[in-house]
Every structure is written in structure tokens, then in C-alpha cells.
């Protein structure tokens, strides 16, 4: 499923107003960043192919917000993560 998501997202889009820059911090200390159009929160992280589980939540640090699977269809813009965001992953 993850390679399919990565293919569906394609290459990093150009830096234009509708594109968000997202930096994701993984539990192992690794971080990955890229630009996304108005994709959903979980598609962005799943496309990076780092996690071996789909049981996780996305968290912003300031102000602390938890985006659980109940928010997985929410777009980056709707989540208030546009034009730039840092997300932390919490494994369940």
C-alpha cells in the first residue's frame, strides 16, 4: 500500500501557494520532509515508507494537537498544517 501511495503522490511539487512543506519526526529519531499538495495527513506519512505499522497518530507539538485515525481523511489545509508543519509520530 505504501509504494502505491508514493506513486500516487508523485515527485515533490513546486513551491507554490497551495503546497505545504511537511517535516515528519519518526520514533526512531529519523526525520523526513517534503512538499505536498492538499493531500490527506496519513497519505503523506504513509508515502514516506518508514513505519512498519499503520497504528499511529500524528501530533503537532505547538499547540499540541493529536490527529488520530478519525482524522485520516482530513487535508493538510483543513488540519491547519498549511503552508508549513512539523509532525511527530506516536506509535500505538
What key attributes describe this structure?
Ubiquitin-like (UB roll); 92 residues; globular; alpha+beta; 2 helices; five-stranded mixed beta sheet
What does this structure look like?
By secondary structure, the chain is of the alpha+beta class. The chain has helices at residues 2-9, 41-47, and strands at 20-25, 31-36, 56-61, 64-67, 84-91. A hairpin with a 2-residue loop joins strand 3 and strand 4. The chain has a single domain (2-91), classed as Phosphatidylinositol 3-kinase Catalytic Subunit, Chain A, domain 1 (Ubiquitin-like (UB roll), Roll). The chain has two helices and five strands. The chain is globular and about 35 Å long. The model has no long low-confidence stretch (mean pLDDT 84). Strands 2-1-5-3-4 form a five-stranded mixed beta sheet, covered by helices on one side. Residues 13-91 form the UBX domain. InterPro entries: Ubiquitin-like_domsf (IPR029071), UBX_dom (IPR001012), UBX_domain-protein (IPR050730). It comes from Brassica napus. Keywords: Ubl conjugation pathway.
